[in-house]
């Protein structure tokens, strides 16, 4: 599923729909001519803020772990 899950196998448990996130990214990159901009904007408004919060919490947790 990508570099992130190879390095952090429990990422899917922490963030949630990693497969959908990766799939969405792949569609934007490879099928950009067929993308519905209203759907993309709805995802940006409704999902990205939650993903950002979860990602920031994970980074803080990771930084607090001893090496």
Automatic annotation (TrEMBL):
Keywords annotated in UniProt: Hydrolase, Nuclease, Nucleotide-binding, Phosphoprotein, Toxin-antitoxin system
Question: Is Cell membrane included in the keywords of this UniProt record?
Answer: no
Q: Which GO terms describe its cellular component?
A: toxin-antitoxin complex
InterPro entries (UniProt xref): HepT-like, HepT-like_sf, HepT_RNase_toxin
Coiled-coil zones: none
- Answer yes or no on keyword Nuclease: yes
Gene3D superfamilies referenced in this protein's UniProt entry, alphabetically: bsu32300-like (1.20.120.580)
Report a single Gene Ontology molecular function.
nucleotide binding
Q: Name one Pfam family in it.
A: HepT-like
Q: Which family does it belong to?
A: Belongs to the HepT RNase toxin family.
Q: What is this protein called?
A: DUF86 domain-containing protein
Q: Which source organism does the UniProt entry give?
A: Rubrobacter taiwanensis
Lineage, top ranks: Bacteria, Bacillati, Actinomycetota, Rubrobacteria, Rubrobacterales
């Amino acid at each position: 599923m990508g570099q992130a899950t190879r390095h952090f196998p429990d990422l899917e448990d922490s963030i949630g729909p990693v497969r959908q996130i990766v799939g969405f990214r792949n569609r934007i990159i490879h099928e950009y001519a067929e993308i519905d901009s209203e759907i993309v904007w709805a995802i940006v408004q409704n999902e990205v803020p939650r993903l950002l919060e979860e990602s920031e919490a994970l980074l803080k947790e990771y930084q607090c772990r001893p090496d």
